[in-house]
């Protein structure tokens, strides 16, 4: 799954996004490009679960 998170502006944001995803699925693979604001996730969690958790944590994603 690929998401764009427009308010992800720094490494700290990227770490927070990664932590949120890992809280849902500790085995998830997360690749983040802060410059393009893109997050690539391989996870057993559904897109809906990820979107909900990221939105709750202040990083509302859009499916890219």
Automatic annotation (TrEMBL):
Pfam families: HMA
CDD domains for this protein: HMA
UniProt keyword annotations, A-Z: Metal-binding
GO MF terms, alphabetically ordered: metal ion binding
Domain HMA: 1-62
Record's keyword annotation contains DNA-binding: no
Metal-binding among keywords: yes
Domain of life: Bacteria
Protein name: Heavy metal transporter
